[in-house]
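Issue: copy button drops trailing tokens. Both records pasted manually instead:
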Amino acid sequence: MDITGVDFIIIPTTDFERARAFYGDVLGLEPSKQWGDRPAQEFETGSLTIAVMQTDAFGAEFQRHSQPVAFQVPDVEAARAELEGKGVTFGMDTLDSGVCHMAFFTDPDGNALMLHHRYAPK
């Protein structure tokens, strides 16, 4: 086997239209491929495609992600303030790990997400 990359990650939802509005309008991700007439939409982040999918329409049980997808931003505090202005709540203060800043939040289905900025050299 020769794995050459990661094409996308699926974010499960119970309400496709609500999720599409959150990822497109609130987070400002660029929508790309709609999965035909099915309740699934891909969004581009620049490095990883996020596929929002209403699980019951695909015969799957909904299970939210408990570990976050980390969205890279140039300034965590500025991005956090923008999202808070749009009604997004964060579970804790912004965390400084000593190499990066992280701010944890969830989408409307409770899927774990994070704003992330690495400020220390790798």
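Record 2 (pasted manually too):
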Amino acid sequence: MFQIIVLQTTPSEGFGGGMMLPMLAILVVFYLFMVLPQNRKRKKEKKFIAELKKGSKVVTSSGIHGKLLQINDTEGTVTIETSAGKIKFERAAISVELSKKYAAPVKK
């Protein structure tokens, strides 16, 4: 009464390569515009943090301005002197962009 019809299909030969090229292009664009700039920024931040020395003017990511008094490499902390007193912070809390603006000479 019922008949089952089985159709066999063969994949077209160009199907796999045609789909791979746009996906590869998307991955390359993603890498160039997202990953590379982020890696460059991370390297600059690490270099800036490593080059900090006593007496440097810095700004933390929370906006606290001060001068470095002490750098503790074993704990990864710094002590900053502000107008309110001395405060201990993690080294990672120092904002690279804000510190560079703060330490730059004022143009008249």
